[in-house]
Amino acid sequence: MSSSHTIHRMQNNYTHVYPRSGRRLLSWRHSATNPTGRSFKTAHSGAYYADVPAESLKRYQPGGYHPIRIGDSFRHDRYRIDHKLGWGGYSTVWLATDTREDRLVALKILSADQERDSHETVILDRLGREDPSASPLRPSPRYLLDYFTLHGPNGSHSCLVTPVGGTSVQMLCSRFHSERLPGWMAWELSRQLVEAVAHMHSVGIVHGDLYPGNILVTTEHEALQQANILNELPLLSRGDVHALPGHRLTPHLPPYLVEPVDFPLDTSGRSLHARIIDFGQLFLVGTTPKRIRTPLVFRAPELLLDHLWDHRIDMWALACTIFQLATGQTPFDNLMPNEDALVREWIATFGPLPSPWRPTRDIPRVESIEEMPLREWLRECYYGVERKPEFAEQHIEWLGEMLKEMMQYEPQRRTEARYVLNAKWFERTWLL
After folding, report:
1. Are 288 and 300 a contacting pair, CB within 8 Å?
2. What tens digit of pLDDT does each residue of 189-226 get?
3. Residue 229, CA atoms < 13 Å, CB-side half-sphere
4. From residue 254, how far is each of 34, 45, 56, 69, 219 by CA, in Å?
5. How far, in Å, CA of 177 to CA of 82, rounded?
6. How far, in Å, CA of 222 to CA of 165, rounded?
7. Tens-place pLDDT, residues 145-186
8. What is the pTM of this model?
9. Which residues are ATP-binding (predicted)?
10. CA–CA distance, 324 with 326 (Å, rounded to integer)
11. How far apart are CA 302 and CA 357, in angstroms?
């Protein structure tokens, strides 16, 4: 392929290294609690700010987030807020104590502009009634523990109570050099994720928001022991909310924002378990939702270029996730991404768009694009960092072949999850 064009695929704000091609690699820092992929040192809006890495204050308005204080209690004082687990574009998630059952739980509070009868509650209840041994989606026999509505200054909010699930893959990656997981860990978590997606699709469920921030990891012995977890967590980090000149604080805002906690997780053994979370974007096979809010760099082409999509958007997102687990960065630019730039990267990686999609997108020519097939780009990302490789070149070749089959432009040509498990890369013999 032509090498007259060069695209600099830059990742978020971390140490860069220089690969053999003209593309620039950076190890990836994408907050587990921040689905946009952008790094926040200060949370702010046009009128308010707080000196802490947290959600945007713009969402604290009617229809948005519910303002939370540590120590708040809900549902007749049953659930007490102890710490923050994270946030998404349409919810905040908190570590809470269930005072009735004397246990820790995760309390997800949806923004007030979300449908009260969310599909998420339906699917969690459905999964909770399954035989636990039959589903790789979660380790506990009941996932949705409780569901209620709270009323606050920004509206009515649906609240979901689930078991505490561990640390996210995003946070886990940040613990390793170049944000790349050890080889055995990347392989094992990838295999479990493929199994989970295959199971979801087999029962007619599409996740619709699959990316590393929506994957939790625990150990076989649940390193998060209920009795000790609060003592093991780092000190609470919070920043008071301030108003810029000419503005006043309102009841729609919290008095402070809280930095999400990173759970301790023992990775010395080889008994990690992955669990997919956040079913707020799910839809059923055979239906097409009005919109999908998956982080841009994990979106399948049809989400940008077509008006119809199905369960195979999960396959594209799954491939992007596995790519990140193996290399430490996303396959496409995650630094201030935009749709046109992403489409140009697709073209550089996979060739021209299928003819039915070409009229839908007028992509300006960029003289700095180097065309590079996916498998070659995978090699650059894996071997182009200052870290001893754990996978042999043959293993990376097998991984590239598998990802290529999962990332076909046309959805009908993508390998289904149940067949991905038969890929050469997932054979245990070479790993052992």
Report:
1. no
2. 999 999 999 999 998 889 999 999 889 898 765 545 55
3. 21
4. 19, 13, 12, 7, 34
5. 31
6. 9
7. 899 999 999 999 999 998 887 788 988 888 888 889 999 999
8. 0.78
9. 108
10. 5
11. 9
Joined together, the tokens standing for residue 418 give 């149940």
Give the residue numbers of the binding site.
Answer: 108
* Rg of the chain in Å (alpha carbons): 22
- pLDDT per residue as tens digits for the range 395-424: 999 999 999 999 999 999 999 999 999 999
Distance CA 404, CA 210 (A): 18
8 A C-beta contact, residue 164 and residue 98: no
CB-based contacts of 293-296 (< 8 A; 24+ apart in sequence): 293/35, 293/89, 293/90, 293/209, 294/208, 294/209, 294/210, 294/211, 295/35, 295/36, 295/37, 295/211, 295/213, 296/37, 296/337, 296/338, 296/339, 296/342
Rounded to 5 degrees, what angle do the CA atoms 58, 59, 64 make? 150
Residues in the chain: 432
Cα 266-272-273 angle, rounded to 5 deg: 135
The backbone torsions φ and ψ at residue 162, rounded to the nearest 5 degrees and listed phi first, read -135, 165
Question: Could you give the domains of the chain?
Answer: 16-431 (1.10.510.10)
Binding site residues for ATP, as ranges? Answer: 108
